[in-house]
Amino acid sequence: MASILRSLIGDSNRYLKALTLFKKHTTLYRNTYDFIDNQLPNIMPRNLNGKSHLNIIGVGSGSGEIDINIISMLRMKYPSLKVDNEVVEPEPQQIHDYKDLVSQTPGLDHVTFNWNQMTAEVFEEQWKGNNMTKKADLIHMFQMLYFVKDPGATISFFHSLLNKNAKLLLVLLSDDSGAGKLVKNYGKQLRNNSNDEISYLTTAEVKPLLEAKGLKYRCYKLPAQMDATNCYVEGNEEGELLFDFTTEVHNFKKSVPPELKAEIMEFYRHHACSLDANGKIQFNLDSEVLVVDRV
Ligand SMILES: C[S@@+](CC[C@H](N)C(=O)[O-])C[C@H]1O[C@@H](n2cnc3c(N)ncnc32)[C@H](O)[C@@H]1O
Q1: Which residue's alpha carbon is nearest to atom 16 within ligand 1?
Q2: Taking the CB of residue 278, how many other CB atoms lie within 10 A of it?
Q3: Is 6 within the bounds of a domain?
Q4: How far is 195 from 186, CA to CA, in rounded Å?
Q5: Is 134 within the bounds of a domain?
C-alpha cells in the first residue's frame, strides 16, 4: 500500500518553524519589498490623492511584514490617508506575531486593524451572513491561494468586494519557477499519497480561472530564490525543514519512499529547478503578481 504523506500545513508548529527559516534563506521577501516600493505605487488606483480613507484587506497575511510594508509605502506617498486594514489569517501564532509587529512599528496611528483569525472561506461566510456592504480599495493575497479549498471561488468573492478602480493582487509561484517545475513533475505523486488538502498551484492555473471569469489582469515578475545548500547536507535539520517548506510535504526526507525521494532530490537540485552558484544551490522561486482590476 502506498504510504500516506501529510502536508506540512497540517502541523502548524513545524510549518511555522520552516517558514521562519525560509524567510532567512530566501530573496523572496526582499524582492517583494522592492516590488512594493517601486512598482506598486504605479499600480494603485490613480484617484488616491483626493481620498481621505482607504480600505485594505490582507488575506493569508501571516505575520504581517508585507502588509506593513504596503501600509508604510502608502503613508509615504499619501501622508493624509487613513487606512482601515482587515487582516484575514487563520493561524493564531501568526496573528500574535503580526500584532507584535504592529506594536513595534512606529507611525501606524492612522491605521485601524481589524483582526479576523479565520480562513478566507470562513471570512466569506461571515461577511455574507452579516450582509456587509463595505468595499475595499486594495485586496492582497501574497503566496496564500495554495491553501484555499476553491481558489476560483475565493478570487470571485474577494473580487466582488472591490470598489470601482480598486485592485486585487494575487501573488503566487510562476509555472516556470523551479518550484513550479517540481510540482508539475511530481505534484501528483506527492499529493495522491496525501491526506491533507493543499493544491500545488502556480500562476499557470490561476490565469485561466481569471480569464474564464472575464477578469482583466496584468502580470508582474517577482524573481526569487532560496539557498537550498543545507537541504543536501545529510542530517541537517534546517535543510530538512526547508525541503518540507518548498515541497509542502511534512517530514519529506523521512516520509517519502526512498526511490521517489532520491528522484525528487536529484530533480530539485538540477539546473532546471536550481542554480549552482559559488558552491551554493539556489532553488528558483520566481513568482508573479497578478493585478486584477475592478472596472
Ligand atoms: C506562505 S504563508 C504567506 C504569508 C504572508 N502572506 C507572506 O507572504 O509572508 C501562507 C499564509 O496563508 C495562511 N492560510 C492558510 N490557509 C488559509 C486559508 N484557508 N485562508 C486564509 N489564509 C490561509 C497561512 O496561515 C499562512 O499565514
Answers
A1: 147
A2: 6
A3: no
A4: 16
A5: yes
Rounded to the nearest angstrom, the distance between the alpha carbon of 44 and the centre of ligand 1 is: 23
User: Three cell numbers at 192?
Assistant: 495522491
Measured between alpha carbons, how far is 264 from 255 in angstroms, rounded to an integer? 13
Give yes or no for a contact between 143 and 171, defined as CB atoms under 8 angstroms apart. Answer: yes
Instruction: Write the CATH number for 210.
Output: 3.40.50.150
Amino acid 288 reads E
In tens, the pLDDT along 176-221 reads 999 999 999 998 888 765 555 567 899 999 999 999 999 999 999 9
| 271 or 273: which leads in pLDDT | 273
99 within a domain of the structure (yes/no): yes
* Structural domain span for residue 133: 11-42+52-293
Separation CA 124–CA 151 (nearest Å)? 13
pLDDT tens digits, 235-247: 999 999 999 999 9
Q: Residue 2 falls within a domain, yes or no?
A: no
pTM listed for this prediction: 0.95
Domain count of the fold of the chain: 1
Q: From ligand 1's centre to the CA of 98, what distance in Å?
A: 12
Compute, in angstroms, the gap from residue 61 CA to the centroid of ligand 1: 6
Only one residue has cell 534546517, namely 238
